[in-house]
Design a protein that fits this description.
Blueprint lengths: L1 H23 L1 H8 L8 H24 L26 H26 L2 H23 L24 H7 L5
Helix pairs in contact: 1-3, 1-5, 4-5
Length: 178
Amino acid sequence: MDVFYAYTYSTAAWFGIQAIPLMLSPKLIITTLSTEARKPTFLEEYLCRSLAFTLLTLAIVTVLLTGTIPLSSSLSESEITSDPDDPKAPYAVPSLTVTAAFHAITAFYAYMQYTRHGQIGFALSQIGSGFLASMGCWCLVFGTEKGRISKRTGADKRTSGWPFKNEESDRKKGKKKL
């Protein structure tokens, strides 16, 4: 579950890193990304600050809905799991899915803008969002269910003999070859 916590905090930090320059100096961001030197309009400044507040809100909601910061006042010894039936964080998996999809879409869009305009800001956004998208997908694939590990042998129970046969196991069990 440590990767899940790392993903949640990294997502919140990435949203914060993107929001702070947009909130504090939208003129700098607009003039850096525009092709011609001009004064930004009031609408552009408003939209930059609105996006900054939206990113900060999304960061806070992500941390709260995934159960990383508990919303109840009772202390429990067990940690938050990404199990859909976990009462401590019922929205952990849906929040993980939405933020991973958001990072994937943002990484793709930043890649398209970088190939079109060639500005380094888009490349940095692509790297950050792409890393978080892959980390979120990893958490979705491997972190949302408990492994099916045998207590007796320590092997994964979901493995099969296809496409390779386990002849040693078949010999021990007395299975005949076809």
